[in-house]
Design brief:
Distance between the termini: 31 Å
Largest sheet: 8 strands, mixed
Radius of gyration: 19 Å
CATH topology: TIM Barrel
CATH architecture: Alpha-Beta Barrel
Number of strands: 15
Bound molecules: iron/sulfur cluster
Helix content: 25-40%
Order of helices and strands: EEEEEEEHEHEHEHHEHEHHEEHE
Shape: globular
CATH superfamily: Aldolase class I
Number of domains: 1
CATH class: Alpha Beta
Length: about 350
């Protein structure tokens, strides 16, 4: 069962309290199944302002071409939305690419970039979803609009082959939590295995794509510990990554309910959520306010990650959107000049 353990280590930045993950008993863990996909034609607008718009000076839009997400991450903010329809079914908007083409034609000028996707993963284990992702990127490329992608998935060979044509207009960020298979199955049950994501990160970089990495969310005692971060950073350094973005988990009522339902059988919900009771509720620009870990605790966690990353030649960007109580000089934010930039997608 879960225990809180101090894990002080000589010569290291002070470690986080580490939560012991029990061996996951499939009878105690919430079972996950791949969802059923329903193709539908969506009415209304596809391109929306990006939640990052307040942080960036550029014209950045976003699109979700799927309602729901196949990955079912325990910590996901989208699964915690009040109107979330559940994990059993995804709705795939099969007219998304055509709708985006129409909307781009109607605009005065194209946006700089479109972010795929704030509330779903563009590369889940479904060929039909990956194919629609590619069709959207094809359309964006017609208008010379950059595609900014974030995934916990694996781009299938057929999709990758088609994306290569547009690699100068694509920036792809791989989000990671852990190399520990047991922990990954708890936190990101239907995401691609971490080593597969790392392998693809290297492959895409070698093919000339702009590739980045993000370690998120940091979860106190689970993913923010030395034992979790050091091997992950080692692998990222080996893959040639010299900058990562990061953000701590934040909590809203829906996220909390999911964490309690899915982590309580493992004895993890209470120790993860309790420290948030002392934390602030912070507004986050265009997205709903949420409860955060106390500022000092986040600061210590980010400092530990930065120290570990620096030992490996990796710089760390803390997400400004999800840490609005940290002052970030504007100049430290991504600048609107090419080449493609390190982005903080954690919201
Ligand atoms: S991949 Fe992203 S959108 Fe999908 S469940 Fe995980 S965190 Fe949510």
């Amino acid at each position: 069962m879960m225990m809180l353990k101090s894990a002080p280590r000589r010569g290291r930045a002070r470690s986080a309290q580490r939560l012991e993950l029990p061996v996951v008993d499939p009878h105690r863990a919430v079972s996950r199944r791949l969802p059923h996909i329903t193709p539908i034609e969506k009415r209304g607008q596809f391109l929306r302002p990006s939640p990052m718009a307040d942080l960036l000076e550029d014209d950045i839009l976003s699109v979700n071409h799927v309602s729901g997400c196949a990955m079912q991450c325990t910590f996901c903010y989208a699964r915690g939305y009040p109107g979330f329809a559940g994990d059993a079914e995804l709705q795939l908007y099969i007219n998304a690419a055509d709708g985006i083409r129409r909307e781009l034609r109607e605009r005065r000028g194209p946006p700089r970039a479109v972010y795929l996707c704030p509330s779903t993963d563009p590369f889940p284990p479904f060929s039909e979803i990956q194919a629609e992702t590619v069709r959207i990127i094809d359309v964006l490329a017609e208008f010379k609009v950059e595609s900014w992608l974030m995934t916990r998935g694996h781009v299938r060979p057929g999709a990758l082959q088609r994306l290569r044509r547009h690699r100068d207009l694509i920036q792809i960020t791989f989000a990671l939590t852990t190399l520990d298979r047991n922990l990954r199955r708890v936190l990101e049950p239907l995401a691609a295995p971490t080593r597969l994501r790392l392998r693809q990160l290297r492959e895409l970089r070698d093919l000339g794509f702009a590739v980045q990495a993000s370690i998120e969310p940091l979860i106190r005692g689970l993913t923010d510990t030395h034992d979790n971060l050091a091997p992950l950073l080692d692998e990222l350094a080996k893959a040639g990554i010299n900058r990562v973005s990061t953000a701590y988990l934040y909590v809203r009522p829906g996220i909390q309910q999911n964490l309690e339902r899915e982590l309580e059988p493992l004895g993890l919900a209470k120790p993860i959520l309790e420290p948030y009771q002392q934390g602030p509720i912070l507004p986050m620009g265009r997205i709903a306010a949420a409860r955060h870990l106390p500022r000092a605790e986040r600061q210590r966690g980010y400092a530990r990650l930065m120290a570990l990353a620096a030992e490996r030649g990796i710089a760390v960007n803390v997400c400004g959107l999800t840490n609005p109580d940290f002052s970030q000089p504007r100049a430290a934010l991504p600048q609107p000049s090419r080449p493609l930039r390190q982005l903080d997608f954690g919201y």
